[in-house]
Amino acid sequence: MTRKERARELFLAGYNCAQSVFLTFADTYDLDWDTAAALSSSFGGGMGRLREVCGTVSGMFLATGMLYGYETPGAVQEKAEHYARIQELAGEFERAHGSIVCRELLGLSVKRQDPTPEARTPEYYRKRPCCELAGHAAEILEAYMAEHPVKRGRGEREPE
Question: Which of 77, 95, 100, 156 has its CA 20 to 30 A from that of 138?
Answer without folding.
Answer: 77
